[in-house]
Design a protein that fits this description.
Nucleoside Triphosphate Pyrophosphohydrolase, 138 residues, 3 helices, three-stranded antiparallel sheet
């Protein structure tokens, strides 16, 4: 393991539809973690804030427009031997209907259904944190 790896910041969104469903995106079969389901998002580019990156990624991947003020940071996840730090935001307002522009598919799922989906390792603790926040709010 490298002693001081360069952190790779990645952002993701839990899009909440107001009726108990969260949008998940299936990764391309040909890439890393191919075919697994994840919260949509991507890497923060140099010069971007995490919020700016998330707004950009949601436009690129889902064709929606999100106001940076409509996203709220929720939690993050990281693995000991991986430089990726995945930051999850919640979002309840956006313009446009999400469509799959990048990846294999998108779908709206309840939290119970999300836990049954095959997910990359970093998305699992994010889903747990989201579940805890929603359970506490209800």
């Amino acid at each position: 393991m490298q002693k001081n790896p360069t952190m790779i910041p990645v952002v993701a969104a839990a899009l909440l539809d107001g009726s108990g469903h969260v949008l998940m995106q299936q990764r391309r079969f040909s890439g890393r973690h191919g075919g697994l389901w994840e919260f949509p998002g991507g890497k923060v580019e140099p010069g971007e804030t995490p919020a700016q990156a998330l707004v950009r990624e949601l436009g690129e991947e889902l064709g929606i427009t999100v106001d940076p003020g409509a996203i709220e940071p929720l939690t993050f996840a990281a693995l000991p031997d991986d430089p990726v730090v995945l930051m999850l935001y919640t979002c309840t307002r956006w313009d446009g209907e999400p469509v799959c522009l990048d990846g294999e598919a998108i779908g709206w799922f309840t939290l119970d259904q999300i836990f049954a989906l095959p997910m990359p390792p970093l998305d699992v603790p994010l889903a747990r944190a989201l579940n805890n926040v929603i359970a506490t709010a209800n």
